[in-house]
Amino acid sequence: MNQAPFAYEGLERIFHERGRLAVCTCLVANPEGMSFTALQEACALTDGNLNRHLHALAETSIVTLERVRGSGRPTTTVRITESGRERFLAYIDQLEAVVRAVQESERSAAANSALRLATS
Amino acid sequence: MNQAPFAYEGLERIFHERGRLAVCTCLVANPEGMSFTALQEACALTDGNLNRHLHALAETSIVTLERVRGSGRPTTTVRITESGRERFLAYIDQLEAVVRAVQESERSAAANSALRLATS
């Protein structure tokens, strides 16, 4: 039996941060990769914040960063890796389970409360 | 138009932390309140961690802490407030929207990839 039903160990800390959740959601939607600038605009993150998140995600092999030198300024293309995508989707599954658990207990709390009113 | 579709400002930071998410989920399931000890066991948190989270939640009026002196040791009963419950459920709604967005983009990425395979 699960001793601590609300421990949520499946919620990987690397993904459970608002900025990194935004970045990963965005990259799953754009598997071909995104430029640093496009990612920054989509997620409303500052340069520093996005940089910090991308380094954390690259260190754990969730994303790859590719520096592209064209005719103009070099740009960085960010892609989610296959294993990063799988880990992120597992995190999202766990998040869905939490959402369902809350909605379920909210429904039974409301039903119990209606029952108490009806029988009082 | 939404300039930053992935900014997720609705994900209130107070709830978007694994320990506090566990505590609030637990308290929504137990609207009559829970003892500190029961909450600690259900969420697998240390004394210090649970204390820290409860103080943060009490400061923002999400929970109330009631110290009860009986015949034995005093115990603390923790309850989620009505406004705390509403804010938490709004956070959960936003979380559900994120889960759906990821699942949706995952499905279209899979469909696009199948299409590329079929036409290549």
In short:
Chain A is built from four helices and three strands, in the order H-E-H-H-E-E-H. Chain A has 120 residues and is mainly alpha-helical. Chains A and B meet through helix 1, helix 2 and helix 4 of A and helix 1, helix 2 and helix 4 of B.
How much of the polypeptide of chain A forms β-strand, as a percent range? 5-15%
Largest sheet data of chain A: 3 strands, antiparallel
Give the low-pLDDT segments of chain A: none
Euclidean distance between termini CA atoms of chain A: 36 Å
DSSP strand count of chain A: 3
Approximately how much helix is present in the residues of chain A?
A: 55-70%
- List the secondary-structure elements of chain A in sequence, H or E: HEHHEEH
Instruction: Count interface residues per chain for the largest interface.
Output: A-B, 38 and 37 residues
Our Rg estimate of chain A from Cα atoms comes to 20 Å
The total count of helices of chain A amounts to 4
